[in-house]
What we know:
- This is Citrate lyase alpha chain.
- The protein has 14 helices and 25 strands.
- With 513 residues, the protein is an alpha/beta fold.
- It has 2 domains: 49-240, Glutaconate Coenzyme A-transferase, CATH 3.40.1080; 252-486, Glutaconate Coenzyme A-transferase.
- Strand 3, helix 3 (110-115) and strand 4 (119-124) form a beta-alpha-beta unit.
- Helix 7 (252-267) crosses helix 8 (283-299).
- It is globular and about 70 Å long.
Amino acid sequence: MINAVGREIPERIRGYAEAIPFAGAFATNPSMRRQAPAVKKIRPGESKLLGSLEEAFAKIPVTNGMTLSFHHHFRNGDKLVNMVLDIAARLGLRDLKIALSSVFPVHAPMIGHMKTGVVTALDTNYMSGPVAQAVSRGILENAVVLRTHGGRARAIECGQLTIDVAFIAAPAADDYGNLNGVQGPAACGSLGYAFPDAEFAAHVVAVTDYLADYPLSPAAIEQTKVDYVVKVDQVGDPAGIVSGTTKITKDPVGLKIAAGAAQVINAAGLIQNGFSFQTGAGGASLATAHFVRRIMEEQNISGSFVLGGITGYMVEMLECGLFKKLLDVQGFDLAAVRSIAANPNHREISAGFYASPFNNGCAVNKLDAVILGATEIDIDFNVNVATGSDGVIMGGSGGHADAAAGAKVAIVAANLLRGRLPIIVDKVHTVTTPGETIDVLVTERGIAVNPARTDLQEKLASAGLPVKDIHELKLLAEAIAGVPDQLITGDKVIAVVEYRDGTVIDVIRQVEA
Length: 513
């Protein structure tokens, strides 16, 4: 099957249900209903508080072949996934599917459980580190499913991803299952990615290292959704939240790109009262926010909201009155954690509210501009953020494809060369975000506009920005670094890349072991 971005999709993929080819960013309409967990009751006087995770395994009970879910708000400081999988191994469980919203280097012990058959399937939105490398080399027989953040919420709500047990790492909890992420020694901020799991899983186990008096307030996840509460010594290390730079870059090339991206937003006429914005936590993305801030201050602009993963720099812009609200699905640093606990204009949102394409309107639909990264972009503006130049998985869409689809202007800001290789290619190795939703590429050597956006082309050219054809930028990069060799992979499909609507936009094949 050939999909709408020209990728060949196998009709049968091991461990994956029916593959429906991607047909376009807005081509698929929902034809299902939201699922619902079984109705339960608890009598007066019954306790939800258990003495150990092992007791939770026995109470549910957790059995072979189940799907266990986890969230990634602790990022590289997570401790719960490894804890749960070690117990599963000791109990002799097999064939578990792990639905973890993102995988980080801290989850390397999962590889051992894959080798022994404890874990045989993985469903995630992002992967980096040893697990991603092992998957790329074929450690699993079943293909991993790579979703978007909004796509995961949709899949859970609509029953495509059914969860038997959701283990929710809760920085604070009471004995009846009220949870939040803003109190306790391991406070991580928003718990937005855990909301769909808590809402739709068959069983929900809250795991905390800070047990507060009842009733816990505020309660991000309420007692009505939680079956059991378990206290452990340490559920996560908040220092691991800051995995990656959260400071403005000082690199001159990065600053030039960031300044160009801000100029694009301004020339597009988006920086006006009510402006809305999303950017990542990387140094160049934060630098773009810095240049946007300058323009807003010069023009006395008051924006409406900043969306997505929130950093201290966004908190500062809120506190300075440049934006009225922060909509926070995940904290990227400890300043964001402190802010969401104290400021009512810093709002915690769910992954579905953030980016699910199948509800009555997600927040990305209200974005004016988003700044995105890329490992590769091709001449059709398709973007790869999943695999590196060696074909190994080193990321995933996360909110990339979601925000690109929703924003009025989606900007990829990237160096023309990445690791001495041209970023612009004829065809990206892996399509994660379709070119129809990418509007502008900003590099240090020029700006390319998607031919479908003639309106933007005219505005940017009129503003005197260095607009070039993407083919011209590609040739310029190749003149500097040469044409990269074509990557050869094996036949085995090791990952399915789903678009946010559940269709298959690409597959990733095994690299050499």
